[in-house]
């Protein structure tokens, strides 16, 4: 059983979309422009020399590396994503490309340690040159980007609330603006609170009998 409530969606204007596209465009250009060209050349050299390339990352970094793995496969390389069921063991001479914004992600650091132990080469993408991941790498590419916990807007304005301004970044095209009818509201279901009982305080599907929390309940990264 649920209670139906009505909430009014915040209007999204063409100016707001234009502002945010410009924001993303500018920050990508700034980050790419600050990458050390010598480090990038070293990465390209190691990729070309390696008989096999492995990629390891978690969360958003992992998703980006999966796209990179597909692109490297299209270029004809022998590529594997760490953690997949068909991924073989890394060997001496192979290359591991690992990414972690903080450089402290446990699974990624462990993958780098394993690669180093067998004599594989390691490339690390991170925002922190002094991180544990960087310490294990042969080549470190420092990306001047905001960490996921940096919501102050010092590095990335995408984490801060900024009103749209007409003069920001991208030039407007000559195409006419497409307009759509405003949304009157969004209806969503709000579950009723269950009666309190043993193990109250969390939904019943994430608790075991007797009130003990289930290990199946995931913790967001």
UniProtKB/TrEMBL annotation:
Residues 209-221 have a biased composition (Low complexity). Residues 165-180 have a biased composition (Basic and acidic residues). InterPro entries: PHI/rmpB (IPR017552), SIS_dom (IPR001347), SIS_dom_sf (IPR046348). This is SIS domain-containing protein. NCBIfam families: RuMP_HxlB. Gene3D superfamilies: Glucose-6-phosphate isomerase like protein, domain 1. It comes from Sinomonas flava. Residues 152-221 are annotated as: Disordered. Residues 43-180 form the SIS domain. Belongs to the SIS family. PHI subfamily.
């Amino acid at each position: 059983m649920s209670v139906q409530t009505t909430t009014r969606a915040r209007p999204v204007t063409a100016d707001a979309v234009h502002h945010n596209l410009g924001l993303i465009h500018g920050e990508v250009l700034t980050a790419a422009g600050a990458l050390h060209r010598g480090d990038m050349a070293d990465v390209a050299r190691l990729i070309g020399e390696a008989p096999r390339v492995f990629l390891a990352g978690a969360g958003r970094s992992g998703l980006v590396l999966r796209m990179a793995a597909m692109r490297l496969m299209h270029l004809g390389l022998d590529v594997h994503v760490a953690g997949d069921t068909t991924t073989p063991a890394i060997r001496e001479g192979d290359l591991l490309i690992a990414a972690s914004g903080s450089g402290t992600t446990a699974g990624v650091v462990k993958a780098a340690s394993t690669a180093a132990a067998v004599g594989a080469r390691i490339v690390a993408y991170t925002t922190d040159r002094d991180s544990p991941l960087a310490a294990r790498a042969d080549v470190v590419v420092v990306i001047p980007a905001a960490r996921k916990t940096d919501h102050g807007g010092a590095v990335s304005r995408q984490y801060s609330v900024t009103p749209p301004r007409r003069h920001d970044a991208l030039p407007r095209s000559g195409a006419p603006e497409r307009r759509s009818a405003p949304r009157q509201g969004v209806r969503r279901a709000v579950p009723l609170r269950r009666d309190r009982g043993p193990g109250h305080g969390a939904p019943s599907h994430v608790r075991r009998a007797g009130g003990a929390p289930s290990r199946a309940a995931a913790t967001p990264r």
